[in-house]
Amino acid sequence: MQVRKQAFSSVEIMRFLIPSALGVLFFLVPFPQDGTFNTVLGIVIDWGKEALKPILVVTAMTLVVASAIITIYASLFKPSFIMKSQFFKDLFVVSPLWSISRILGAIFSVMVYYKIGPEAIWSMDTGGTPVLVLAPSLLVIFSVLAAAVSLLTDFGLMEYVGTLARPLMHPLFTLPGRSAIDTLASWLGSSSVGVVITTRLHNEGYYSDREAAIISTSFSILSVAYIYVMADFVGLPNMYFQILITIYAVSFILAILAPRFWPLKGIPDSYSGRSGKQRPEAEIPPDHTLHSWALKTAVERAKREGIHTVIRTCYQTFCFLIVSTMPLVVSWGTIVLIIATYTPIFQWISLPFAYMLELVKIPEAYKVAPAFVLAFADQFLAAVIGATCTTVAAKFMCACISATGLIYMTEIGVLILNSSIPLDFPKLTAIYFMRAVLSVFLLAPFVWLFC
């Protein structure tokens, strides 16, 4: 069969190549800086933190308070300008748990900034860290990420790499080839977006119950952008590239192992989505090679996008991160640090992890161990623990488990539980702690290598 020649103009190909290359350059290519390596992303963020330092704390506090006020207003009165927009409706009309989290974030921000109430709340050992250190840092990071992430996700790079990866999906992960694009959307774009895509495709019959469960719990990993956030959180922005390599290498191994063990292995290949039927995977046309089909899908995606895409992705990403993530860091970060500082609860629960961490020679093992438990609640809480550690190795472990644990209940867990994917809370808990235990031993060699 003769291979069809691509009928793309040089302009169309450049429309795919240039934004994608800029995204790779911005997020993934390390440059030497002050005796170490940093990415363009990291350099811009460092500059922004220094330039905006005098106003960051007040601005971050104002945004956290504003997000709580708008959430209360939207939930109580449901104004038409919010309800008519699906994006803003999803952003501000949220469950009672998320509303309370945002309200607590606002209260804690004001208490810490003005030192109101008991010192147990506003000291630097507790609320001071998320309010005065983490939230201002996040404000700069989120602003830069929101402006640049579209280059990496919206101009065909995911389609191109995802198509090329199709032949590896079944032998490695027991998944159909079409899942390559879905999984790459999680790895490069957003873990929550990955779960939403998986849920939709499961409902439409593209994935079986087992396939959807594997994808949502093995590939909905923190994106490259969030991994920088975690690295900066713990105080290792200069080691972002090493942390990125480690997280993806360990997550790759876990994605191979997890589908071959209970509970994922025991989920049947039935189709319980809303359609109730299977949609067989479309084969690559015989007049296309794998590469020509990858290029075709990438160029056709890029043809649909433009400056409007960058602007839309920028403001939606920024709003989501500021409204949903920053208040959560302040509220739950403060609560967790109070519990961790004044009670032994997390030390007791995390004691088995402390023994395992000691076994693999990780310093501050008893301080790091709670991160392996807290990451199940929210990935940022592991990074909050890492920010209080003093050794590079301990910080490195906390940054990594925030991603390799993957199933954090504040977002991924809730999305899965609310979906048609047949995973309940006990199964999610079992999958998380299996990943956490394996992560101790899989992360250790990278810690020895890089730290």
Automatic annotation (TrEMBL):
Superkingdom per UniProt: Bacteria
Name of this chain's protein: Transporter gate domain protein
Lineage: Bacteria, Thermotogati, Synergistota, Synergistia, Synergistales
Keyword vocabulary terms for this entry: Membrane, Transmembrane, Transmembrane helix
Residue ranges of every copy of the Nucleoside transporter/FeoB GTPase Gate domain listed in the record: 137-235
InterPro entries, per the entry: Gate_dom (IPR011642)
Pfam families assigned: Gate
Keyword Phosphoprotein belongs to the record: no
Keyword Membrane applies: yes
Transmembrane segments: 12-31, 51-76, 88-114, 134-157, 212-233, 239-258, 318-349, 369-389, 396-417, 429-450
